[in-house]
From TrEMBL:
Subunit structure: Homodimer.
Record-listed substrate binding positions: 88
Details of cofactor binding: Mg(2+). Can also accept Mn(2+).
GO MF entry, a single one: ATP binding
Catalysed reactions listed for this entry: acetate + ATP = acetyl phosphate + ADP
Pathway: Metabolic intermediate biosynthesis; acetyl-CoA biosynthesis; acetyl-CoA from acetate: step 1/2
The protein's name: Acetate kinase
PANTHER family linked to this entry: ACETATE KINASE (PTHR21060), ACETATE KINASE-RELATED (PTHR21060:SF15)
Record-level GO BP terms: acetate metabolic process; acetyl-CoA biosynthetic process
Any single Gene Ontology cellular-component annotation: cytoplasm
Protein residues bound to ATP: 15, 205-209, 281-283, 328-332
Length: 405
């Protein structure tokens, strides 16, 4: 048994889980909200116990807080019990095609591509540095969201720009949420009792950030996010697909002070928040939709964009064995799933209204005669990170034990 720590660093929060591997038993789940530097909210969930909240005013890094809690609740007695640490990294560009052990040379490469995910990668790097300082002898593994999408064919990842922009600047579709899409695809295969290599899946990661992937034979062949996590679906505060000339027009008419303000609005003030003019939270928007036309419009636009991509990927795959809903919205919002599913009936995809409202995850709410299963599967990026970290250190240890001839 080895204890593996999974770290998912965001711009204002951090999720940490400690697993016993290879049993995949979650020993603790910790959330650190450090948006308020003077009063950090930290919650810990232990097996079969209610969520416990702590407030810290002392200046501790998020990983320090997590280790302090793990010791407080006797999950570990000392940090050296942790055999490996896996870190979620949003963007790996074309430099990183798979999960890899973190070295000083690798860190230099990683920091060189911060621009690919400016809201996420710097926070991911900070989480790595924090863990390295606190557990200097512990193997650290980087798990890239973009890695799952590295098998996209050129016709799917290239933009119709002069090829020199790809050759010189590597401007292309990279995608995101690959760790989540990969996890739920594997879970879907288990649920359907089929080999993943024989399945055609459309996976829908719908949360604050949202993306859809077409998966064939276990590999991503197209995905909605592009060069950055900004494009594709309409999201909580991100705009999704926008005609670039509209942005040039707005810049010329001084709607934005400069390009930095433009990017801030596209990332933080657009999407559901921008259209509803009420909230970034789909739950609040749906509550307001009956009395607020802008909120109702935001829901309609969100559903339409999802269905646009499902239609495209249905053609890309030549049909699909299953559609998989995951993420905060995908897993919990039965009304949103119903709105999407109603528009899929023309494809011969039919759903059960009552089953769609089940709370017993995972489940399939398609009818017996539906042309595709409709699965709701909770994602677990931290478990996927732990799997990769454990597999890498185990493979390395086995190679060291192999006799040299």
């Amino acid at each position: 048994m080895k204890k593996v720590l999974s770290i998912n660093s965001g711009s204002s929060s951090l999720k940490i889980s400690l697993f016993s591997m290879p049993q995949e038993e979650r020993l603790a789940k910790i959330m650190v909200d450090y948006a308020d530097e003077n009063n950090q909210l930290v919650t810990i969930k232990l097996p079969d116990q209610a969520l416990i909240a702590h407030h810290y005013t002392e200046k501790l890094t998020p990983v320090e807080l997590a280790l302090k809690l793990l010791k407080k609740y006797k999950i570990i007695t000392q940090a050296t019990e942790i055999a490996a640490i896996g870190h979620r990294i949003v963007a790996g560009g074309e430099l990183f095609h798979c999960s890899t052990e973190i070295t000083p040379a690798m860190m230099i490469k990683l920091e060189s591509i911060n621009e690919l995910a400016p809201l996420h990668n710097p926070a991911n790097v900070a989480g790595i540095r924090d863990a390295q300082n606190l557990l200097p002898g512990c193997p650290q593994i980087a798990v890239f969201d973009t890695a799952f999408h590295t098998d996209l064919p050129p016709e799917n990842f290239l933009y119709a720009l002069p090829m020199e922009y790809y050759r010189k600047y590597k401007v292309r579709k990279y995608g995101a949420h690959g760790t989540s899409h990969r996890f739920v695809a594997q879970q879907a295969a288990k649920l359907l009792q089929r080999s993943l290599t024989d399945l055609k899946l459309i996976t829908l990661h719908l949360g604050s950030g949202a993306s859809i992937s077409a998966i064939k034979n276990g590999k991503s062949c197209d995905t909605s996010m592009g060069f950055s996590p900004l494009t594709g679906l309409m999201m909580s505060t991100r705009c999704g697909d926008v005609d670039p000339s509209a942005l040039v027009y707005l810049l010329k008419h001084h709607a934005f002070a400069d390009m930095d303000e433009c990017m801030k609005i596209l990332n933080q003030r657009s999407g559901l928040l921008g259209v509803s003019e009420a909230s970034r939270d789909m739950r609040e928007i749906e509550r307001e939709a009956e009395i607020n036309p802008q909120a109702a419009l935001a829901v309609k636009m969100f559903v339409k964009k999802i269905c646009d991509y499902i239609g495209a990927y249905w053609l890309e795959l030549g049909g699909a064995d299953a559609l998989v809903f995951t993420g905060g919205i995908g897993e919990n919002d039965s009304h949103l799933r119903e709105l999407v599913s109603q528009r899929l009936e023309c494809l011969g995809i039919n759903f059960q209204v009552k089953q769609n409202q089940s709370r017993n995850l995972p489940f399939d709410f398609a009818t017996a005669n539906s042309r595709a299963h409709l699965l709701v599967i909770p994602t677990d990026e931290e478990l996927m990170i732990a799997r990769d970290a454990y597999n890498l250190i185990t493979a390395e240890q086995l190679s060291e034990q192999m006799p040299v001839h």
